[in-house]
Write a structure and sequence with these properties.
The chain is α/β, with parallel strands linked by helices. It has helices spanning about 10-25, 50-55, 55-70, 85-95, 125-140, 190-200, 220-230, 245-255, and strands spanning about 30-35, 40-50, 80-85, 105-110, 110-115, 115-125, 145-150, 165-170, 175-180, 210-215, 235-240. It comes from Nonomuraea coxensis DSM 45129.
Length: about 260
């Protein structure tokens, strides 16, 4: 019998796989985790153009190569390559595209997907994943300032329900980075929640830790006012295109060079 609930480890692993496939030029249009009723197992369905779906052996070879390089925690047997022309897949893609959350995906209930009954599922936002990946690529190019790694959420903070996406560090300071792909401006309440989390976890690290929030569509005026009062521990960056890399570098530099962390 398979897992009855989709675990975060698989969601994170699936996201890493999709980003790696994108880097290798493998055209994934939609991807989702689906709990198949008949098999009683969670499967990662990867939707690709019909030409690739028609030659599944080659598609699986490419997927397996990426999985082996990433050393993911689930096997190839839990992946399924499907055509992105499937109407059920197209409907789920539309569903996640209009979602207003900041997450990289959206949970859905019972449905029939690619001819199979699904009790529940999770569909990725390919746009949000691409946005995260752009930011991570820019951070990796800042190796003169320090080093960046993917936080992996629960691996860093096992007792915390929320997480950050990346951590940037040098010898004397750490910067937690959350990437927000909202289609609206980030509100003050979201930042206050983040700073509450930050206050709980920052003391567990041997060096001061600050927080950087990168948003695709900017921040509300109250959010900007709130952040201005916490300049040594919180910085906001609006990232619309790759041309905003300079603002990202400026934010990282400012937090790394700031005085002792203000912990509220």
């Amino acid at each position: 019998m398979g897992e009855t609930k989709l675990v975060k480890r698989d969601i994170d692993g699936g996201a890493r796989l999709l980003q790696e496939l994108n880097d290798r030029g493998f055209p994934v249009s939609t991807a989702l985790w689906a709990h198949l009723v008949e098999a009683d197992e969670w499967r990662l369905m990867i939707a690709v153009p019909p030409r690739l779906a028609a030659s599944r052996a080659e598609a699986y070879r490419l997927v397996q190569a990426a999985m082996l390089d990433l050393e993911l925690g689930f096997p190839l047997s839990r992946t399924t390559v499907v055509s992105d022309e499937e109407r059920s897949v197209q409907s789920l893609r539309t569903l996640v595209e209009v979602d207003q959350s900041h997450a990289v995906g959206l949970a859905f209930g019972a449905a029939r997907v690619c001819g199979q009954q699904v009790s529940e599922g999770f569909v990725y936002s390919m746009e949000a994943l691409a946005f995260e990946h752009q930011v991570f690529a820019a951070l990796r190019r800042m190796d003169d300032l320090g080093r960046v790694f993917e936080a992996g959420g629960s691996r860093l903070f096992p007792d915390e329900p929320r997480e950050v996406d990346f951590v940037f560090s040098n010898a004397s300071k750490m910067v937690f980075i959350e990437v927000v792909a909202l289609t609206r401006k980030v509100e003050e309440s979201h930042l206050r929640e983040l700073m509450g989390w930050h206050a709980r976890v920052a003391d567990s690290f041997p060096v001061p830790a600050a927080l950087l929030v990168v948003a695709r569509n900017g921040f509300s005026e109250p959010a900007q006012t709130y952040a201005a009062s916490l300049r040594s521990s919180l910085h906001l960056v609006t990232w619309g295109t790759r041309n905003d890399a300079a603002a990202l570098r400026e934010g990282i530099t400012e937090l790394l060079n700031a005085g002792d962390d203000a912990r509220d």
